[in-house]
Amino acid sequence: MVHAETSGYPQQIIRDRYRLERMVGRGSMATVWVARDLRVGDTVAVKLLTSLTDSEARQRFRREGETSTRLRSKFVVRLFDYGETAEGVPFLVMELLHGLTLEAYARRVGRMPKRHAVRFGVQIARGIAHAHRRGIIHRNLRPANIFLHSEASASPDDVILKILDFGVAKIQDVSPDSVMPVASRPNNVIGTPLYMAPEQLLGLRPVDHRVDLYSIGMLVFTLLTGKPAFEADSTYDLAGAILNKPLTKPTSLAPDLPHALDAWFERACARDTEDRFSRANDLAMSLHQAAGFEGPLDIHLEPGHAPVLPDTVVLELDVSSEIPTQRWIPPAED
Predict the structure, then answer these.
(1) What pLDDT was estimated at residue 205?
(2) Most confidently predicted of 168-172, 178-182, 241-245, 261-265
(3) What is the pLDDT of residue 155?
(4) Which residues of 46-56 are buried (b: 16+ CB within 10 A; e: fewer)?
(5) Residue 221: is its pLDDT beyond 80?
(6) Which of 96, 102, 129, 174 is the most buried (most CB within 10 A)?
């Protein structure tokens, strides 16, 4: 049962600064509120942990605070503050986003236009490149953890992606002599199977930043084709397909795509990590070129051709027993 003192209440003021206004999401482990930052006057989102006896949930809350406060990319959700209330309840203070998750948007539209898919793939890669430069590996990139956020202006270019949920991220110290140090320990399997790299699924050896690059490849495949790269009736069969079956070519599902995207996908999601891209920025540039675009990586969207996002947003917590995540979805239609 969620108790009022742990889930928050309207007009409650946290740390003499954040006044809770209304709850917009509730899960088995946390609640999310629209709140007012009394110091600067901004509207923010406040997430409160409700599973106070769950030490692992506390640890993930703390990890998300430690990782996200290091990041300052427009392609990563901004976390302003974190800590505990006077009652000992862990909290996170984040920017309030307007739109919906990539998962929810993809359900609405199915296959995306190439221009949208490549633009979004490049933005995910740029956000992850920023995290990698700061020694952070996300480890759970998937459509539910990517948010289509619309700025206040009417420009279609103001619809951008924001990477969410660094609750299972790995923080590493970055030395000047390495691109990215080793990440998780062997046998520590973390992630969502469809978007997990083979070495992540096996959990038999340490993984590095290239697990995120693999996940980006799988995400872009889904955006370009409207289908996942692998399908199976069970998680066990899905893992077997990822580990053993040949990669599906994007053009086999969408023949109008340039064949250069087949080669890009094969490299992005190569089973051997040494055959993958080594950096997220290289992956982004190669995607841009393989899709037939020239010039700057920022692909502009013409008026009338931008993603159509809902005017209002409901924040719902999608909390599994293994990985707590945040999920923004539009209100259900009548």
Answers:
(1) 67
(2) 261-265
(3) 56
(4) bbbbbbbeeee
(5) yes
(6) 102
Judge residue 88's burial from the number of C-beta atoms within 10 Å of its C-beta, 0-12 exposed, 13-18 middle, 19 or more buried.
Answer: exposed
Residue 151 Cα distances to 161, 181, 250, angstroms: 11, 35, 31
Residues 133 and 186 in one domain: yes
Give residue 155's identity as a one-letter amino acid code.
Answer: S
- For range 115-123, the mean pLDDT: 92
In a domain, 210, yes or no: yes
Give the ranges where 226-274 is alpha helix by DSSP (H): 235-244, 250-253, 260-268
Does pLDDT of 81 surpass 80? Answer: yes
Same domain membership, residue 167 and residue 54: no
| Residue percentage of the chain with pLDDT more than 70 | 78
Q: Are 228 and 217 in contact (CB under 8 A)?
A: no
What's the token pair of residue 173? 């110290």
Residue 64: CB partners within 8 Å, gap ≥ 6? 79, 82, 92, 165, 166, 167, 169
What SS3 class is residue 274?
helix
The DSSP secondary-structure symbol of 28 reads S
Phi, psi dihedrals of residue 318, rounded to the nearest 5° = -105, 90
- Tell me: do 207 and 254 sit in the same domain: yes
* Full-model pTM: 0.81
Report d(CA 249, CA 4) in Å as an integer: 51
Does residue 121 contact residue 276 with C-beta atoms inside 8 Å? no
Tokens of 98: 């307007």
